Amino acid sequence: MLTCLHQIFESVTFRAGGAFFTAFLLTVFAITPLLPFFRKHCIQKSARIDNGEKPHKPLMGGVVIIASVLLSSLLWGMISDRKLIVFLLATLSLALLGFADDFIKLKYLRQERDGVKERTKVIIQAVVSILAVYALYKTHGTVTMKIFLPCFKQAFQFVPGTESIAVMTPFSAEAWFVLPLFFMPLCLLFMLCLNYGVIFCASNGVNLTDGKDGLASGCMIFASLALAVTAYFSGHKIFAEYLNIPYVPGAGEIGIYACTIAGACTGFLWHNCEPASLIMGDTGSLALGGALSLIAIMLGQQILLFIIGFIFIAELASSFIQRFVYRHFGGKRFFLMAPIHHHYEKQGIPDSRIIVRFWIIAMICALIGLGLLKLR
User: Fold this and answer.
1) Of 229, 170, 185, residue with least CA distance to 373
2) What phi, psi does 179 have (nearest 5°)?
3) C-alpha to C-alpha distances, 242 to 46, 237, 301, 370, 372, nearest whole angstrom
4) What residues does 158 pair with on adjacent strands?
5) β partners of residue 171
């Protein structure tokens, strides 16, 4: 009997389910008694909204989300797993950056754009991201320095030999070209910077998506569950061989971590659905986006992340397009307002319809991403 129970509690799928429901319950029941505190101390009183009224929805909901993720991961994950420790430290670091950004806005009654300076935020994100990716790179079994394309078996990677480095692409089993061996540090730096770009896009994409009640948290549920399934497949040798995806020993533990994110976001959605009583803020959005991207990087599925997290990438891209057009075309605007969910808001579409439609797109993109794992 004890042996059977031991096997059940060792099962990755059982612990993943336990992690999901633990994070869900922690978030749901922790927020309720904390709401009076948030409403008293966490209102961004000078933030700009379209109708000129002062907002009444408190920030800092991400504090509860991240706390639930960390506690559930420590409870259900294997703490001895180095990958999990890297993920927890990176998530906490990005959450502290978001917390500082939110705190400045609240403490000094700053506008939405006036938290941590943009350059400072980018530098801190870069340092945290590169350190986390390098730590994963030095962890046995990860494929951090490989990039797999959906529908292709081969990866883009640098393969060092005795005298040269072969640059491999997904489109051919032969090397694209060869570099001298002393270029290896530059190749490593190139991949680190490329992976930082993935983290930057995902982290800031989730941050920009957090602009309507339940939008970011709802989309995060689908994206994190899709990556949890991908991590489970990658950590299971038989499934990995069947799907022709890289086998990453211990990836199932990161799948459990992804389930804690999904559970915490589901619990947060309980309070964050329209009309929201609490907003995630940068504390949650920066950390959750970074966590998603690190999962994809560890599995070599950076491109798949852009499919699964299409909503976040679209939000970020719309902001970049809007800024580029405004600066280079005489103050003209490509969208009525950016990021793109505000464009639809300006068209008079009700918030609830925008949010649900974005959820549907997020769900479809997550299913497409999972389906592409087999098409290789």
Assistant:
1) 229
2) -115, 155
3) 55, 9, 17, 14, 13
4) 167
5) none
Average pLDDT, stretch 131-156? 85
Confidence of residue 164 (pLDDT cuts 50, 70, 90): confident
Query: What is the mean pLDDT of the segment spanning 59-83?
Result: 90
Residue 341 has pLDDT above 70, yes or no: yes
Task: Give the list of residues 6+ apart from residue 152 with CB closer than 8 angstroms, or none.
Answer: 170, 171, 376
Question: How far is it, in rounded angstroms, from Cα 99 to Cα 104?
Answer: 9
- Give the Cα separation of 336 and 203 in Å (integer): 24
Could you tell me the strand order of the sheet in which 177-180 lies?
Answer: 147-148, 155-160, 164-168, 177-180
Return left, alpha or beta for 174; rule: phi > 0 is left, psi -120 to 50 is alpha, else beta.
beta
167 — phi, psi (to 5°)?
-95, 110
Tell me the H-state helices in the chain. 2-10, 12-41, 61-76, 82-107, 118-137, 184-209, 215-235, 237-243, 251-272, 281-299, 302-308, 310-328, 340-346, 351-372
Q: List phi, psi (to 5°) of 166.
A: -90, 125
CA–CA separation, 233 and 247 (whole Å): 8
> Which residue, 50, 265, 215, is CA-closest to 207?
215
Identity at 54, one-letter amino acid code:
K
The reply to whether omega before 160 is within 30° of 0 (cis) is no
